Amino acid sequence: MIIEERQSTHVYRQKRLFTKEELEARESLCVHEQPAYCNAACPLKLDTKALTAAIAAGDFNKALALYEKITPFPHILSAGCEAPCEGRCKLCSLGEGIAIRELEAAAVSYGESPRKRGLLRKKTKKAVIFGLDLFSLFLAGELAKKMYPVTVYCAESDQDSLIRAAVPNLPARVQETVAADLKKIDIQFEYSADPVASYTGAAKKYDLICASYEVAKALYPGLEIDEAVMVCREHNLITGKTEGVLGAAFGAKKAALSADRLAQKLDPSNTRGEEGSVETRLYTNLDGVEPSSRIPCDSRDNAIAEASRCIQCKCDECIKGCAYLQHYNKFPRILTREIYNNVSIIMGDHMMNKPINACSLCGQCSVLCPNGYDMAEICKLARENMVYTGKMSLAPHEFALMDMVFSNDEAFLCRPQPGFDNCKYVFFPGCQATAIAPATVRAAYLDLCSRLEGGVALMLGCCGAICDWAGRYEMYEDTVKFLDEKLESLGNPTVIAGCPTCKKQLSRHKTLGIWEVLENIGLPEKAKRTDKPIAIHDACGARGDSATQDSIRRIAESLGCVVEDTPYSGDKSPCCGYGGLTQFTNREVAKKMTDKCLERSELPYLSYCMACRDRFAREGRESMHLLELVYGTSADHCPDISAKRYNRLGLKNELLEKVWNEEVNAVELGFTLEYTPEAELMMDDRMILKTDVIRVLQNLRQTGEAILDEETGLTVTRARLGNVTFWVKFTETETGYLVHRAYSHRMTIQPR
Amino acid sequence: MATEKNYYTIDPEGKLTCMKCRVKLVKGKAKFMYLDNGFPVELPVCPKCGFVYVPEELALGKVLSVEKALEDK
Question: Which of A5, A743, A744, A748 is the best substitution to test chain B (most B C-beta atoms within 10 A)?
Fold first, then answer.
């Protein structure tokens, strides 16, 4: 059977992955970009996390630069801010929260502003402020920062009295430092002026008219102020009543934005964006965070120590547990958007194909995420979408799909137990168990036959997970139909699955895990007892199936295993790298997934999915499948891709002969075939099967087409098998061939 | 006449022999095709039977990289 490759790169078919609303709903589940609690509480939107991080790193200049972004008067604000952020600090729930205001004051004390200022041009619209209070002083600073020429008419006679009047409640030393702030800001003061009296004559010389609240009240008794924008619309006057230092600073910020709008002859409410403090949906995991107390920021070092207590609140629960997300270093919201865009591309490169195909579809993210973000579903939908639109190449998945075809064709077996027409049960061990541990499967089947009543049929094949993972929905529908018909022919028995993924895939039928059956009927006598400490790796196929997870632990413990609890076990378990076909599409990510599984414990791993067992063993870890212990049999040690096929076919033939007394005719090749060790390794690495080599050499014997390379002395021949051309380099032996090298390509080649 | 574009050229330099026709391979015109895209090349070709030889280095190098690029189109 050949699986059809996509037709052309020039077919421009498109199907939207999600509606705009669905995309936004999915994206909004990811809170990675939500502001930290302290940041959200600050109406001035100080990047508090960055400020504490800068101080913790000893970079007070950077901390000051961040602080100066939100206020023209850092001394006043850091001395008098009411700091609503501090009460929102996540550490408050454990011990004492970060002394954020003190850290701000430390940034102001120990940081230095850059000498050079940007060369911004002064704006042509001129602003005037009548009367001085803290609000109007902040407003003067904000307007000056926005490069409006600002003039302030105030009753005070000089700068010192002005500062004392503006910030009467702040300590004298802070008042002194305000003078330093004022020096940096270009504000024109008209001292000893009567602000109310000056208004009538002076106001018309300016474009933007502002006033302190007291002056505004004196000018227009009973005036109505829109506090949201700090404007008296009736008189086009920018003013407002504020309370406290933070209130004045925030009021001035809002007023300065209104000034911008009025300067553009726009309504002050126009396009203002989000102002003030906000509610955040951030989630921060405090596991492993110890309670701690505040350190007074009375020195540089103490400020650094206090800032170092900050845990830099963020949500990366999914990334912490997932090698795939770590590899691409993208959090789910951004990954989803990029995948959505990738699917929407009509012409051009689909840069996200690799990430779409590299996800193991294990669903760990949906468990780790506080909002259940499910990247697996998104990646699988994207695969199906691209298969539908003809944009998904067959290349990354073809080997696995052909392996599935082999399992459900040449290596497929479906037989009732001898002596039964209809069976009560059917054992479905799964394609990986038969490929990796045929002796264990045989022992399990014979055991079930001998101890269960009502007959146990056997079905060797693939549950359909492979094509489901590949997004080949039509192939999956065919597989479901095929398996259902076979199960019906057995009288719809209860499926005893040997693999948690098969159990899940076949859950449309009555399905049990073999572990549940074994718990029920008891373990066989020859079960291999051990007193080894082991770590259990939960299969991703058993995510959400606590009955299976618990059953495995009980069986392991009854066999004497000392089970060590590991982080990320149970529903949080990561994938071994086989799931979602990652092993085939992206070996680098698959290896990182395996490493991620193994970093949780130094102990031997006990798993209940044969793919996990095999991948761990390949990384050199002592690894066993539960059924190996139960039946005292060993799986093959890291069988290569050809051995995995021979194992499946061999098991089928052996059982046909021994259990069903059917004669199996061995296929005679008519020639012998040997491989150099280098060729065997090369073929496993290049995904070339020994059966592929046989077919190429059979083609040679029919056509005689081959080339002799005089330089190497090797003969080379080729054959097109399905979508791939395979080349084999060999020397002839007395009875056949010795294969030295093999390679392949998907392009076709022809003379022109 | 304008020179015809070739993406890749390999001259067998008389080191390759077609076992079927018992003649030396020569530099000949051939064409790679993949997903409806064609790439004219010059490769060792049997002048008699037209067998085109794709060397291992070419298959695992240039050919593979072009395949991967086209697969993402």
Answer: A743
Q: Are A98 and A212 in the same domain?
A: no
**Residue A4, domain member (yes or no):** no
The CA-atom distances, in angstroms, between A584 and each of A416, A641, A689 are 34, 12, 14
Chain B residue closest to A704 (CA)? B20
Q: Give how far the C-alpha of residue A698 lies from the chain's centroid of Cα atoms, to the nearest Å.
A: 47
| Domain end position, chosen among A393, A428, A449 | A393
Which chain B residues are Cβ-neighbours of A710 within 8 angstroms?
A: 15-17
Q: How far is CA A585 from the centre of its chain?
A: 18
Q: How confident is the model at residue A86 (pLDDT cuts 50, 70, 90)?
A: very high
Contact indicator for A413, A459 with CB cutoff of 8 Å = yes
Question: Which of A369, A393, A417 is the endpoint of a domain?
Answer: A393
Are A707 and B71 inside 8 Å of each other by CB?
no
Instruction: Say if A122 falls within a structural domain.
Output: no
Are the beta carbons of B56 and A745 separated by less than 8 Å?
no
Tell me whether residues B59 and A744 touch, CB distance under 8 A.
yes
Closest chain B residue to A723, measured at CA: B34
CB contact under 8 A, A750 and B52: yes
Residues A83 and A133 grouped into a single domain: no
**Are residues A752 and B30, on separate chains, in Cβ contact within 8 Å?**
yes
Among candidates B15, B20, B68 on the partner chain, residue whose Cβ is nearest the Cβ of A710: B15
Which CATH number do you get for residue A683?
3.30.2310
What one-character DSSP code corresponds to residue B52?
A: B
Answer whether residue A57 is part of any domain: yes
Total domain count, chain A:
5
**What would the pLDDT profile of A582-614 be if each residue is shown by its tens digit?**
999 999 999 999 999 999 999 999 999 999 999
User: Are residues A541 and A482 both part of a single domain?
Assistant: yes
A635-644 in b/e burial notation, b at 16+ Cβ within 10 A? bbeebbbbbb
Tell me whether residue A144 is in a domain. Answer: yes
A9/B51 touch (CB, cutoff 8 Å), yes or no = no
Residue A234 near residue A214 (C-beta atoms within 8 A): no
Does ipTM come in above 0.90?
yes
Q: How far, in Å, CA of A711 to CA of B15, rounded?
A: 7
List residues in chain A touching B: CB distance below 8 A.
Answer: 5-10, 348-351, 353-354, 393, 395-396, 703-711, 715-716, 718, 725, 727, 729, 741, 743-752
Q: Are both A646 and A688 inside the same structural domain? A: no
Q: Which of A351, A730, A745 to mutate to test the interface with B (most CBs of B within 10 A)?
A: A745
CB pairs A-B closer than 8 Å = 110
CATH number, domain with residue A183 = 3.50.50.60
Each residue of A23-68: pLDDT tens digit? 999 999 999 999 999 999 999 999 999 999 999 999 999 999 999 9
Kindly tell me the number of DSSP H helices and DSSP E strands found in chain B: 2, 4
Q: Print the domain residue range for A66.
A: 37-114+299-308
Core vs surface per residue A562-572: b (16+ CB within 10 A) or e: ebeebebbbbe
Give how far B2 is from chain A: nearest CA, Å.
Answer: 18
Same domain, A625 and A575: yes
Same domain, A372 and A499: no
CB-based contact A398:A598 (threshold 8 Å): no
Q: Do A98 and A132 belong together in one domain?
A: no
Residues A76 and A26 in one domain: no
